[in-house]
């Protein structure tokens, strides 16, 4: 697959590069926290061990939090779920064997391990007990453990190639998936053709009736969940896309999620998807019918940064074909 240079691709360098603490921008790129604060007043994900957030129950009937409705036991209380509660959920979830949440504090860092290395070697996920960012990450471990493990293995593989505070190009791309990834499944190849072409009118307006019937979006990036608590109009995610058989999109959510978890883990492990940020198309979530009031009912704002035209000479990785779900 070509990796032609483009305005977006020019932001990245194949060699390791210095980076500050980061968050996800409106076009789903990972940017320094200082720059993100200039762009948006949304919560700023960070790795300070003493960070705490205010608790407020989520509306589990509103996208994307409706995708967490089966975790109401963890999300409907009067406060953040405890690490013990999260670990009980881990122990009961297939694919999370050997994993546990451990409190991230100044004492944990004394082991000298990289965040990803600690998960890989010890099964210990450093977690700040009262932060939305880390809570949503744990919830994605519970929902998509195979994909999370695949990302972790590749991050570990690239650790010897990075310097202190640096990321390789592949690590940067994997961070995009982890923070802002979307698993998109379509039964109709023409819908992906429109997404590939950045034909936002055709995708969101002309094909409005096909959303949630022939094309579905599963949010994977935990920063997207965090930002959705106070969403910005230009929020977008990086797409891992899958061509699926007829009837897939009307299967129960949990059935689809399990199948996408397997397919996405395989695609990322083999490099079919997710290894290059320029090879992933961005999907403006504000255009998805049902995501917000009025979405899919009017012309997309082509002046908005998230509804940009397709960059010249851009070439995306092709969608991965998925087999039928086995009963």
> Which spans have pLDDT < 50 for at least 5 consecutive residues?
1-46
Globular, elongated, flat, extended or rod-shaped: what is the shape? Answer: globular
| Estimated radius of gyration | 19 Å
Beta fraction of the residues?
Answer: 5-15%
**Largest beta-sheet details:** 5 strands, mixed
Q: Please tell me the overall pLDDT.
A: 83
* Class from helix and strand fractions: alpha/beta
End-to-end gap: 34 Å
Give the helix tally. Answer: 11
Record field, number of beta strands: 11
Order of helices and strands: EEEHHHEHEHHEHEHHEHEHEE
Q: Give the helix proportion (percent range).
A: 25-40%
Task: Give your account of this protein's structure.
By secondary structure, the chain is an alpha/beta fold. The chain contains eleven helices and eleven strands. The chain is 32% helix and 13% strand. It has a domain at 174-321. It has helices at 33-39, 72-75, 83-91, 115-122, 132-143, 145-158, 169-180, 189-196, 200-206, 222-228, 253-270, and strands spanning 17-18, 22-24, 30-32, 100-103, 124-127, 166-167, 181-186, 215-219, 236-243, 282-284, 320-321. The strands form four sheets. Strands 7, 8, 9, 10 and 11 form a five-stranded mixed beta sheet that branches. It starts with 16 loop residues before the first strand and ends in a 6-residue tail after the last strand.
Features:
globular; 5-stranded mixed beta sheet; alpha/beta; disordered N terminus; single chain; two-stranded antiparallel sheet; 11 strands
Can you lay out the helices and strands and say which pair or pack?
Blueprint lengths: L16 E2 L3 E3 L5 E3 H7 L32 H4 L7 H9 L8 E4 L11 H8 L1 E4 L4 H12 L1 H14 L7 E2 L1 H12 E6 L2 H8 L3 H7 L8 E5 L2 H7 L7 E8 L9 H18 L11 E3 L35 E2 L6
Parallel strand pairs: 4-5, 7-9, 9-11
Antiparallel strand pairs: 1-6, 2-3, 7-8, 9-10
Helix pairs in contact: 4-6, 5-6, 5-10, 6-7, 6-11
